[in-house]
């Protein structure tokens, strides 16, 4: 069936769910998936976990101006979320999805936040027995800061690095590998899971195999490489995704770089049009796909329907699977044969590395254009953003971001109003994305001899005034 896109009215009135009253955190997602015939063998969403992750946006400010950006034109003028409200939203995450939930501490860039408050936010997430992850462009994510956040309970750090950021001094994705190496070194040895996010667009699509190869070669350090496909949303100057970029083409590109045919068919994580998942086992420079026996893993996931596997630990997952299989000897035999074959493939790498085994996950996010939100995909979304009133699908949130970030919030000190009251001249510094591009185009159009007019234009631009 062709997708049924949400109307503007449906987007405006998209419902925010209440916490499950019975404490069955996975039931809402499981019910939604079942309603769209997605509760199939191999499905892990709503079965093994209640939600993929939830985003806690603690600032709207950013120190980059990406050509693809989900933030809005108003974001830079919005004050940082009050700490009290941040804590309340963390508690709401726990009420909706329970312990073990993956919480993205994000923005904007969260490292622009007061660092004492950032550490308290991470500690609050950890105290609720959820898993805090720092999502950052890495500019201010120094090793001392990462150490401090680790002490507060940080589990993951996700670095966003790609050519949409137009970082000075880096002319290609290959050049950016030096920066990726630097970021890996900052987090190495801190017992943090290191993740990388890459936006896939026309300017770097040809580099996806190289990037997959880069991450595969560092599977002893990097735990997840996420490739996020261009979407027409937010304030960025780039809009529609070129036809060459599809889920299938990105899967093929990652497979070429990884040196294996990665099916991205197992496990299933929510709606397959949104998310695709594949894994590599690595030891001593030798790699082999994991989850490539789709029928076996569908049977394993079905047998452990009530089991929560630790997605971050090979040892814990194997131990949980072993206990599960003791009661199902035929399935245990199939699983043992599979893993013995994998170990045989890795034998020389295991000998070289002293038996050390690592897992790298490749993830593809197919984000939706703000004007083409598929209703089924929104209803089965596994990536949520917390708002004042509750969690909402990330794509829906991005399509109407201003309606959330411009909301007044009641705190113990009274009413918090998000917009800064700043003069137009100061607001010019807040211009990013399409508005900045439009302003610079206006400025360039002024004759060079009109220097006084240029200054007047910079102080009183209609574009700037619209921000305050």
Topology at a glance:
Elements: H1 8-12, H2 27-35, E1 53-57, H3 83-97, E2 102-106, H4 115-127, E3 131-136, H5 143-152, E4 156-160, H6 173-187, E5 193-200, H7 208-216, E6 222-229, H8 247-258, E7 275-283, E8 286-290, H9 294-303, H10 314-325, H11 329-345, H12 347-353, E9 358-365, H13 375-379, E10 383-387, E11 390-393, H14 394-399, H15 401-405, E12 409-411, E13 414-416, H16 424-427, H17 433-445, H18 451-460, H19 462-465
Parallel strand pairs: 1-2, 1-10, 2-3, 3-4, 4-5, 5-6, 6-9
Antiparallel strand pairs: 7-8, 7-9, 10-11, 12-13
Helical content, roughly?
25-40%
CATH hierarchy class name of the largest domain? Alpha Beta
What is the level-2 CATH architecture name of the largest domain?
Alpha-Beta Barrel
Radius of gyration: 23 Å
* Main beta-sheet annotation: 11 strands, mixed
- Please tally the helical runs, counting DSSP H or I stretches of 4 or more residues: 19
Specify the CATH homologous superfamily of the largest domain. Aldolase class I
Protein architecture, described:
- With 468 residues, this protein is of the alpha/beta class.
- It folds into two domains: 8-405, TIM Barrel (Alpha-Beta Barrel); 424-465, no CATH class.
- The chain has 19 helices and 13 strands.
- The protein has helices at residues 8-12, 27-35, 83-97, 115-127, 143-152, 173-187, 208-216, 247-258, 294-303, 314-325, 329-345, 347-353, 375-379, 394-399, 401-405, 424-427, 433-445, 451-460, 462-465; strands at residues 53-57, 102-106, 131-136, 156-160, 193-200, 222-229, 275-283, 286-290, 358-365, 383-387, 390-393, 409-411, 414-416.
- Helix 4 (115-127) packs parallel to helix 5 (143-152) and helix 7 (208-216) crosses helix 8 (247-258).
- The model is unreliable at 456-468 (pLDDT under 50).
């Amino acid at each position: 069936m062709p997708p049924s896109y949400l109307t503007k009215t449906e987007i405006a009135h998209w419902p925010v769910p209440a916490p499950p009253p019975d404490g069955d955190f996975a039931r809402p997602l499981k019910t939604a998936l079942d309603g769209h015939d997605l509760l199939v063998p191999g499905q892990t969403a709503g079965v093994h976990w209640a939600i993929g992750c939830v985003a806690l946006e603690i600032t709207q400010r950013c120190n980059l101006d990406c050509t693809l950006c989900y933030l809005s034109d108003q974001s830079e003028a919005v004050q940082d979320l009050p700490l009290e409200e941040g804590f309340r939203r963390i508690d709401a995450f726990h009420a909706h999805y329970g312990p073990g939930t993956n919480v993205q501490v994000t923005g904007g860039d969260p490292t622009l936040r007061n660092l004492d408050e950032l550490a308290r936010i991470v500690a609050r997430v950890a105290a609720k027995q959820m898993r805090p992850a720092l999502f950052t462009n890495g500019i201010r994510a120094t090793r001392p800061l990462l150490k401090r956040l680790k002490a507060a309970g940080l589990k993951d750090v996700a670095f966003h690095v790609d050519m949409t950021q137009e970082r000075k001094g880096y002319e290609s994705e290959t050049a950016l590998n030096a920066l990726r190496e630097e970021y890996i070194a900052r987090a190495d040895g801190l017992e943090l899971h290191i993740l990388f996010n890459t936006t896939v667009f026309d300017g770097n699509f040809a580099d996806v195999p190289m990037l997959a190869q880069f991450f595969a070669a560092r599977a002893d350090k990097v735990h997840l490489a996420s490739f996020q496909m261009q979407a027409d949303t937010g304030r960025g100057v780039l809009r529609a995704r070129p036809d060459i970029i599809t889920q299938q083409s990105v899967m093929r590109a990652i497979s070429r770089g990884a040196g294996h045919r990665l099916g991205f068919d197992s496990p299933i994580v929510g709606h397959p049009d949104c998310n695709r998942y594949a894994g590599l086992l690595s030891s001593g420079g030798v790699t082999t796909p994991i989850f490539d026996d789709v029928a076996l893993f569908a049977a394993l996931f079905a047998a452990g329907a009530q089991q929560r596997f630790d997605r971050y630990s090979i040892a814990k997952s194997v131990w949980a699977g072993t206990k599960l299989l003791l009661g199902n000897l035929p399935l245990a035999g199939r699983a043992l044969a599979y893993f013995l074959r994998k170990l045989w493939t890795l034998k020389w790498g295991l000998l070289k590395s002293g038996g050390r085994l690592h897992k790298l996950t490749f993830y593809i996010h197919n984000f939706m254009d703000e004007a083409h939100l598929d209703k089924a995909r929104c209803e089965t979304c596994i990536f949520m953003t917390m708002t004042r009133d509750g969690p909402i699908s990330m794509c829906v949130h991005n399509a109407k971001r201003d309606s959330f970030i411009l909301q007044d919030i009641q705190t113990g000190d009274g009413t918090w109003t998000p917009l800064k009251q700043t003069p137009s001249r100061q607001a010019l510094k807040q211009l990013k994305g399409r508005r900045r591009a439009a302003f610079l185009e206006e400025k360039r159009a002024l004759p060079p001899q009109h220097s006084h007019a240029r200054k007047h234009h910079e102080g009183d631009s209609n574009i700037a005034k619209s921000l305050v």
